[in-house]
Amino acid sequence: MTLPLLELRHVSVSFDGFYALTDLNLNLELGELRAVIGPNGAGKTTFLDVITGKVKPTRGDVIFKGNSLLGLREHRIARLGIGRKFQSPRVFENLNVYENLALAVSQPKKPWQLLIGGLNGFQRDRIDHLLNIVNLHSRSGFLAGSLSHGQKQWLEIAMLVGQDPDLLLVDEPVAGLTDEETELTADLLKSLAGDHTVLVIDHDMEFIRRLDSPVTVLHQGNVLCEGAMESIQKDPRVIEVYLGRPEEESL
Amino acid sequence: MKGTKQFRRWLTLLLWIVILAAIIAAPFVLPVFRLNLLGRYLSLAIVALGVDLIWGYTGLLSLGQGIFFALGGYCAAMYLQLNSASELPNGIPEFFGLYGVKNLPFFWEPFNSPLFTTIAIWLLPGVVAAMLGFLVFRNRIKGVYFSILTQAALLVFFNFFNGQQKLINGTNGLKTDVTQLFGQMVGSPSMQRCFFWLTALLVILAWLFSRWIVRDRFGHVLVGIRDDEPRLRFTGYNPTLFKTIIFAIAGGLAGISGALYTVQSGIVSPQFMTVPFSIEMVIWVAVGGRGTLLGAIIGAVFINYAKSLVSEALPASWMFIQGGLFILVVTALPEGVLGWLQSEGPRNLLSRLGIARPISTYPSLEIDGKKEINL
User: Fold this and answer.
1) CB < 8 Å to A106, chain B
2) Mind listing the domains of chain A with CATH numbers?
3) Fewer CB under 10 Å: which end of chain A, C or N?
């Protein structure tokens, strides 16, 4: 059996005595696409904060590619190959689309290299490729702040892919998107899995179903159950805490 | 979008032609007194460029640039004092005699060397800024806390320099106008003319340097820090490093500026480290246009020149005018004068007055969707 790419061992996070995560265990295999759902306050975002180093776990350990991530600062973790997309789209609004992507694909990210050299041919091709994937080629000279909400979401996903991480953490990528954009985003994430390991957090049941991936349900900072979407939806515990009204949820 | 970019380029070019013409013409047109003032204000443009780099681009509002400005000035003044002290008794600067100091304090020694001084003028403030910056940025102190800290540091330096009579003549400062450089009096008209040219040259070099810093990915990282620092971190950049570097660069520029200002005003004193002066530096950049390098230069030179003209005509009224200018910029021209010129500002004003036709395609229409989100 191969080592999992990411392993959370007995992770607890306490904010002044309030436990956002309690004894959370979770494994992600290489190349996997995993969806994480859970009601508000289940600890979904804290869970990403722990992995990316924004929040230090009170107890427990986070293992990535066999090494602990504890005590590493955010940019170090990002350089190890973990990319994160935020809940609301976060792009550099006063830079244009191309410059946003250029910052993402730049390697290494040391000040001297950024000052002295330009992008190399490979990096420029990569940016072109990313612009095509997210359909922003015609917008490459526009300020990111002038893009529509959906375009910003996609730009951020493109930046994430541009970092070439092994693990992509995607927090609510379809919030505020049209149905068509949601479908395209789901297809995009599915196509990324395999080469990358992708973890998606979302509320949108239709979107999760479309991802067609194993689902982990978080509840009160702990894993409630794991499995395929169909079995999850039949699980009485899940119905109780989260899918109480499945008809409304799937709207 | 293309149109505005072209317009900006033309505007910058035009302004540079005007500035260069003014600089070249000034020594022939202006009397020595005015030329000297212009030279001083040009040297302030260099510290303004530094303020623009850290505040306009990186979003770090430092209220302590006076520290680095004064350090540069002291470096230059110490060299000049030593350079002219050889005929004096003890061979040390005259003021030491007032306090009964017989031997040169150890840190004065290296300033016998012109090469050391030339390097120290920018390196010493740069290193001090780097150390101060690193401590602050590593602990993720930002926003208003950063501003308060830099102002507190400024006060510490001010009080320290004020109290050290035996080391650097305390509150009296170090005079440079009666010192010798290349066998000439520093305060003489011919020397002052040289300093004017030197200042003009260094302003242009400092502008080119700053432009090189901000124009490509390094500058984009700075803008990224200003707009969304956590995002930058999760993209794999270390903001602490970038902030420390840019703060050190701004410190170095402030040092050069302070040295040039000192030799042209004839004295360096702890007055360079007063709180209002460092705040004024921020006002120059805000009025000129933050995030536009040329705006920082224009702001520094024009505000200071206006200050001296107004103060001569109507003493005591300048503070009100300066305050009014600042309020005007904050409320009506948040991008500063140059930022306003570069955007649709003039055209909007003309069309509002009924002189020009309003633009038929509103620029944001080109970029679909923007309006929808804002509403």
Assistant:
1) 217
2) 6-249 (3.40.50.300)
3) N
